[in-house]
Design a protein that fits this description.
single chain, binds adenosine-5'-diphosphate, Rossmann fold, five-stranded parallel sheet, alpha/beta, binds thymidine-5'-diphosphate, globular, 8 helices
Length: 210
């Protein structure tokens, strides 16, 4: 058993991360690979409880500082209970969001809190994905897709279009900053076209590791 491979999907709300994470998982399972498809906030029973706290209610319910603590607590549980055991047995873990979301949503939208995010990450998480797909697209189009779903977990989408534009620029800068692991993907295409590019890049990376 190898050390596994940890893949994350990042991007603004409605950019197609969940769709693409699912399509990649299906593609790799068809090849009989051991795949764990998971998500943040959530991915373990404890972290799913925290998810309900952070994603429902009034947009102003939590300050950005409190959110950093809640999302990081959820991530620690997700890492301990789901991600690390899967990687240890050699699985491919595909997570719909990970720490980059905290860097951008909490670290770069309501004041510059990035150093708090980074210090806390170093102290209690200390791990990055091997590969991160940053799905990029126009926030107005993504917001229209996202709100059409009305999931009841729309607290961040309710911050509005300006917020999503700030997020997009944050993710683009992050992809440049972490060019070693981040691959920028144009999300404004048919789902199958995006999935084909994502699968080719993931298989290339899996091949490099084999
Ligand atoms: P995210 O996880 O980034 O919020 P989703 O994968 O949940 O995004 O997609 C948001 C909505 O847009 C869903 O209703 C989904 O079916 C739709 N969708 C996803 N990818 C595409 C695409 N490439 N083109 C058009 N609609 C899409
Ligand atoms: P998600 O379910 O991926 O929402 P969407 O499908 O709309 O992209 O994530 C829920 C929300 O949580 C999303 O608006 C981003 C936010 N979030 C943070 O603010 N910080 C974090 O660390 C994470 C993981 C998510």
């Amino acid at each position: 058993m190898g050390p596994g491979l940890f893949i994350s999907f990042e991007g603004i709300d409605g950019s197609g991360k969940s769709t693409q994470a699912r399509m990649l998982a299906e593609r790799l399972r068809q090849q009989h690979r051991d795949v764990v498809l998971t998500r943040e906030p959530g991915g373990s029973p404890g972290a799913e409880e925290i998810r309900a706290l952070v994603l429902t209610g009034e947009p102003g319910r939590w300050s950005a500082e409190t959110e950093i603590l809640l999302f990081t607590a959820a991530r620690r549980d997700h890492l301990e209970k789901t991600i690390e055991p899967a990687l240890a047995r050699g699985a491919i873990v595909i997570s719909d969001r990970f720490a980059d979301s905290t860097r951008i949503y909490q670290g770069a939208t309501r004041g510059d809190l990035r150093s708090i995010v980074d210090r806390l990450h170093k102290m209690v998480i200390g791990r990055e994905p091997d590969l991160t797909f940053v799905i990029d697209m126009d926030p107005a189009a993504a917001l229209a897709r996202g709100l059409a779903r009305k999931s009841g977990e729309d607290r961040f989408e309710e911050f509005g279009l300006g917020f999503q534009e700030t997020l997009r620029h944050g993710f683009l800068a992050l992809a440049r900053e972490h060019a070693d692991r981040c691959l920028l993907i144009d999300g404004q295409r048919e789902p199958e076209a995006v999935a084909a590019e994502v699968a080719a890049l993931a298989l290339e990376r899996i091949g490099d590791l084999a």
